[in-house]
Specification:
Distance between the termini: 54 Å
Number of domains: 2
Subunit structure: Part of the ribosomal stalk of the 50S ribosomal subunit. Interacts with L10 and the large rRNA to form the base of the stalk. L10 forms an elongated spine to which L12 dimers bind in a sequential fashion forming a multimeric L10(L12)X complex.
Largest sheet: 3 strands, antiparallel
GO biological process, one term: translation
Family: Belongs to the universal ribosomal protein uL11 family.
CATH architecture of the largest domain: 2-Layer Sandwich
Keywords: Methylation, Ribonucleoprotein, Ribosomal protein, RNA-binding, rRNA-binding
Strand order of the largest sheet: 1-2-3
Helix content: 25-40%
Strand content: 15-25%
CATH class of the largest domain: Alpha Beta
Shape: elongated
Order of helices and strands: EHHEEHEHHE
Structural class: alpha+beta
CATH topology of the largest domain: Ribosomal protein L11, N-terminal domain
InterPro entries: Ribosomal_uL11, Ribosomal_uL11_bac-typ, Ribosomal_uL11_C, Ribosomal_uL11_C_sf, Ribosomal_uL11_N, Ribosomal_uL11_N_sf
């Protein structure tokens, strides 16, 4: 018989850097889950990724105080900032301020990597979503 699920916890944690301090500790503690066990398992699962890369994780908490978790691909904004070689998006959007540029070919690579976590039917749809994200961050998209 399947275990009874008592809830889901969604967090974004840097790869290989999960520790009991907030946001991890309080989120897991209120469900009575073993915080250190999660930290060890998460860090082991993400040790091969770039250190500090933000990894969204969905933790499923069960009634018997056990858990399972699924890691997802980093957010689009992380990839866009990296591709544009900038540290953050534009402070004011829509005033013509651009902080960097990305090529369509770069967006295709990002879309291919993120496809399993994106709400798109094909790579072209995913690229269009990324173009919108880039624009809203003040990153100019160039034809390659």
């Amino acid at each position: 018989m399947a275990k009874k699920i008592v809830g889901y916890i969604k967090l974004q944690i840097p790869a290989g850097k999960a520790n009991p301090s907030p946001p991890v500790g309080p989120a897991l503690g209120q469900r009575g889950l073993n915080i250190m066990q999660f930290c060890k398992e998460f860090n082991a699962a993400t040790q091969n990724l770039e250190p500090g890369m933000p990894i969204p994780v969905v933790i499923t908490a069960y009634a018997d105080r056990t858990f399972s978790f699924i890691t997802k691909t980093p957010p689009n904004t992380y990839f866009l900032l990296k591709a544009a070689k900038v540290s953050k998006g534009a402070a004011v959007i829509g005033k013509g301020a651009t902080v960097g540029t990305v090529k369509i070919s770069q967006l295709r690579e990002i879309a291919a990597e993120k496809m399993k976590d994106m709400n798109a039917n094909d790579v072209d749809g995913a690229v269009r979503m990324l173009v919108g994200s880039a624009r809203s961050m003040g990153i100019k998209v160039e034809e390659s």
